[in-house]
Design a protein that fits this description.
This protein is α/β, with parallel strands linked by helices. Among the domains are: 40-256 and 387-423, 3-Layer(aba) Sandwich (Rossmann fold), CATH 3.40.50.10540; 667-753, formyl-coa transferase, domain 3, CATH 3.30.1540.10. Keywords: Transferase. Pfam families: CoA_transf_3 (PF02515).
Amino acid sequence: MPQEPPAESPVNGSHTPGSSDTVVKQDVAAHDGRTGNGALTGYTVVTLAGGIAGVYCTKLLADAGARVVFAEPPRGIALRCRTSSDARPEPGVDGALFQFLAGAGHSVVIDPSRADDHVLLDSLLTDADAVVWSPGSALADDRGCTPAALRERHPHLVVTAITPFGLDGPWAGRPATEFTLQAWSGGIVGLGRGAPERAPVHIGGEVGEWFAGAHAAAATLTARHRALRTGTGELVDLSMLETQILGLSYYPVSFYDTVNRPFRTQRRLSRPGVATAADGLIAVGCGTAQQWFDLCVMVGHPEWIDEDPAPAITERTNEKAGEIAAWFAERTVDEIRELATAFRIPNSPVASGADVTGLDQHRARKFFDVNPRSGFARPGPPFRTTPALLRSPEPAPALGEHTDHYRSTTAGTARGHDAHASTRSSTATTNPLPFAGLRVLDMTTFWAGPSCTHYLALQGAEVIHVESAQRPDGTRLIAGVPADEDRWWEKSGIFSGLNTNKRGITVDFRSDAGREILRRLVASCDVLVENYTPRVIEQIGLDFDTVRTLRPDAIMVRMPGFGLDGPWRDNPAFAYVIEDAAGLTWRTGYADQNPVEPYSLGDPNAGVHALVGLLLALEHRRRTGEGVLVEAAMVDAALNIAAEQVIEYSAYGTLLGRDGNRGPHAAPQNLYRAAGVDEFGRPDNWVALAVTTDEQWVALTTALDEPAWAKVPYLRTAAGRRAHHDEIDTHLSAWCAGRPAGEIVDVLWTAGVPVAEVRQPHRQTEIPQLDHRNFFEPVPHPVTPTARHSTVPARFSAGPARYHRAHAPLLGQDNDAVLRELGYSAQEIAALEKDRVIGGEPGF
């Protein structure tokens, strides 16, 4: 076991901690909401996963008290020595990222060539509750360690498999990377990110790996919830492509089917977006008419408000871009932030690994602390709970540190368990909806909150979605139809995509009668989820103390943008602002330009992390009967999936940046323009290509008929290819320019090279793998045409066979039924409607 360096030292001694490290050490000594045990104490997970997705999944479980055992090949998993820069850990010291992700884990070396090690692995699995698996290591790829083989030998296990496309189907087993999956998902072009004169740009930082890991944790806990009832395990088959569809695009298929046109077809730079101030970068959002009006006043041009003609906001901001930029350039970040916050215009500094720990909000909430072994800065958990359900962080294990212990303590248990397990009857198929009987009060809007509760609704929970007729859910306003069209508020494919299977009521909770309805609802529900700014819930008298008086065992999930305390507590928190404050924006874009906001992931990433916290709260309540407050701040979740930036900077002094479509773990990696025009008549067809190994480079050059330029010796190594990336790009661009995208993919994918078409997101249904997995299901609707809706990104062997059972609720659709369940008479309901406490049309 390597000797522990002093707590104040970096992991390899190559970087003297700077001001941000000092901030962390002096001001951020410990996390709130942690304890010595955890909600999953007594739960054991064996992991045969080696990438970020699988290990982040187990980190979320380990933080909640699960015992995580890394079954590693003799050389260890690749993540032990991974960095995203030229920095390297000292000999004998694991990489900082591994130390962050594997805290509190156990390590057991399993040599797949040794029969006795297979016995040891089976012994570990006998004593486990779940196993997390991903391909790519000598151990995971052993035929005795496939997910099917693990399930056959150990039917009590929940086996969570994380693969690019799923375990079966026409694309199963095909090579892919984070980068090529973004292309297939439509996420590279889906929300118009980037400038139209340049290639579209992916979201940097391998965010899809982290997002898939959070989904894998939620799926594993869902299967556990079912296993507690059925007494048996199941196979959870998670597709990273499907998680990216849910995280990087905004229900484009449902939108397209509803209005027969794409949500967005052109790339554009948001204005002001990321702007250059006198002393740094600041991001300011302008997505609504009110924000445009306020921006005009803020920059000293109120006359812009009344200019004719009145173009769309995007056109206005781009038309005035020069004058706006000049105003920003004359003021400091703090000056602009103070003004924008006063006007309630969304804003944030653009954080990076070098300065994110010093932002006043993160300091006030003591979010960052230090690794107990190597002293680098690291983010805290993605949610906080009352009572504390997370345990205090512990060091990561050295390779094989626990092998001898498990050899001695698990000897002989495999045979005994197999004999016992073979007599079990599988009952999981009788419980296809694991959350049936769970009643959820859904006081959420837009994307982050509804995505959390939608998962529960798809898995059987009764979810009651609350809006008000005066202020309907914001996604109803993103309908893509004119406001004078009949029942326009019922025609949003985005609202529909987020709210199928839910019941819907309207309540004006500004009134005493409306607040009384909410109190009765709280008393009748197991779970309350809300994502308003903190002051809203407190003003209507539904803080957690009040909720507990109404329902002592209630689980309350609060999803503020920046947390329930701190100087940014009440700031507006759109997804892009969260991305700015966490560092996701910093790594997205071209090095010679200001970064661009991902404009997507901040919301659904918050939703899935809140879901994990909610499922842990259910576990705690099952054990103790006690209610739980889950504080799932959006920015805390985003800071976790951007963790590598602050870890790399603090440990090695390396500031990770952005490099267009290139990446630190593949060379070449880029987008290349293909021949022809796209469906909109533009020469904008692209393919994504990423070579991660020397073997894939040989496959690529072979598929290209071994051109002379590719035979030079310096391109045989990853370092050489990275050093000569421009040269490779020139040749690949020329080769791709004369071929259609489909032909390029056929040639290279068949050869074993990770490659993808950059798809428009509304064309996701054309992917045969998604059709094979029934990822989209048609849902009839009483007002709009039948539309295809995405499901969940994992297939559960215990079901259900179909997820969508009812269309998204019409506005106020279930007012009468729900109020009657709460004890209201027909006369009282009529009076509530007359007094406009409830209603079925907006703004009545």
